[in-house]
TrEMBL record:
GO terms for biological process: L-leucine biosynthetic process. This is 3-isopropylmalate dehydrogenase. The keyword NAD applies. Residues 4-356 form the Isopropylmalate dehydrogenase-like domain.
């Protein structure tokens, strides 16, 4: 079959990791008889340099007209890059947020799974790891603090900054449904994470999650405060199946969960809308500290490409093949620097991509 895919390489390690993911997708296309037509789209710092804005209207239209969007990562070093001297709405991240909102990508799925081959890269003790863990973080992506009203004003000679956190019940309901639907296909457990001991938005979150839960009697669920969840993730990660949470909490908890899988370079993500159009990107950033050095782990991006095939193109066997090739490459001992351990074969970004393609 023929598919149109918008490709956003972005900044920092973005071009390196996307190149590897495209190599893998091309191999899948060859093996399964598909054609993927790629259209390159600018977003982030590279778009600022070329057009003056982090995301043009044409770029949004190209994404909307595609079957799916594959993204590397955007942004630069936030302390030294000149992009962070621009007004906030013109900085790289504003492009990503605008794209998420424009495409209606309210559901961000971040699977955190410990490959047994990566036990040595996991910072937790063996007795905590136990039989390993396999969780999904279901993060709300187009509401909350990220999209609330924001301003900085001077009041009586004192600077004051405001960021507002709002959710309406419909925004909560649709992500809660996604969380419970996902749990139904897994181990049927949801932990909804909030800060209901302090925040009104969290109290509404709890109320709506409880309503949604009534439609899923087979799913066991509980509520957990976000500070406790941060602690439980390193104390007993095996307890989690689906973590359902709002935008900012999900951002922070997914980085934490990624590290216990061995590295943030392993954590893929899918951002889904009410239609089949989705955006697929690693959960990590542009890693300016290692950009251009062939050091980045491309696996998170390659696994995101597998999610693209599965969720937007409905190509399950093809997605399975990529996941199996990643599993095999880890069994065969290939490791980038972030997941390296004794006795393994140290490789760069490109060599990791090649090794995965060979196993397809
Ligand atoms: P980061 O995720 O880019 O890097 C954090 C650390 O993880 C760094 O030490 C980096 O080298 C390492 N790392 C990240 N990805 C890796 C990979 N694939 N392989 C090996 N090591 C990897 O986070 P940061 O440094 O806080 O942010 C850098 C920039 O990225 C910022 O401009 C930020 O806004 C942006 N960012 C973008 C996205 C995105 O595009 N979705 C996500 C997060 C951060
Ligand atoms: C992520 C990133 C983004 C976020 C930034 C770059 C806006 O950290 O995708 O996790 O906070 O959502
Ligand atoms: Mn993040």
């Amino acid at each position: 079959m023929n598919f149109n895919i918008a490709v956003i390489k972005g900044d920092g390690i973005g071009p390196e990791i996307v190149t590897e993911a495209i190599k893998v997708m091309d191999k899948v296309a060859e093996k399964f008889g598909h054609t993927f037509n790629y259209t390159q789209v600018l977003m982030g710092g590279c778009s600022i340099d070329a057009t003056g804005v982090p995301l043009t209207d044409e770029a949004i239209e190209t994404c909307k007209a595609s079957d799916a969007v594959l993204l590397g990562s955007i942004g630069g070093d936030t302390t030294t890059s000149p992009w962070y001297k621009l007004e906030p709405s013109l900085r790289p991240e504003a492009g990503l947020l605008k794209l998420r909102k424009s495409l209606g990508l309210f559901a961000n799925i971040r699977p955190a799974y410990l490959y047994k081959e990566l036990k040595a890269a996991c910072p937790l003790k063996d007795e905590i790891i136990g039989d390993g863990f396999d969780m999904v973080i279901m993060r709300e992506l187009t509401g909350g603090l990220y999209f609330g009203e924001r301003k900085t004003v001077e009041e009586n000679g004192v600077l004051k900054a405001y960021d507002s956190l709002t959710y309406d019940e419909n925004e909560i309901r649709r992500i809660a449904i996604k969380g419970f639907e996902t749990a139904m296909k897994r181990r049927k457990n949801v932990v909804s994470v909030d800060k209901a001991n302090v925040l009104d938005s969290s109290r509404l979150w709890r109320k709506v999650v409880e309503e949604v839960a009534r439609d899923y009697p087979e799913v066991t669920y509980s509520h957990m405060l976000v500070d406790n969840c941060a602690m439980q993730l390193v104390k007993n990660p095996g307890q989690f199946d689906v973590i359902l949470t709002e935008n900012m909490f999900g951002d922070i908890l997914s980085d934490e969960a990624s590290e216990v899988t061995g590295s943030i370079g392993m954590l893929s993500s899918a951002s889904l809308s009410a239609t089949s159009l989705g955006l697929y990107e690693p959960s990590h950033g542009s890693a300016p500290d290692i950009a251009g050095q062939n050091k980045a782990n491309p696996i998170a991006t390659i696994l995101s490409a597998a999610m693209l095939l599965r969720y937007s193109l409905n190509l399950d066997a093809e997605a399975d093949a990529i996941e199996a090739a990643v599993q095999k490459v880890l069994e065969d001992g290939y490791r980038t620097v972030d997941i390296m351990s004794d006795g393994c074969l140290f490789v760069g970004c490109k060599e990791m991509g090649d090794a995965i393609v060979e196993r397809l």
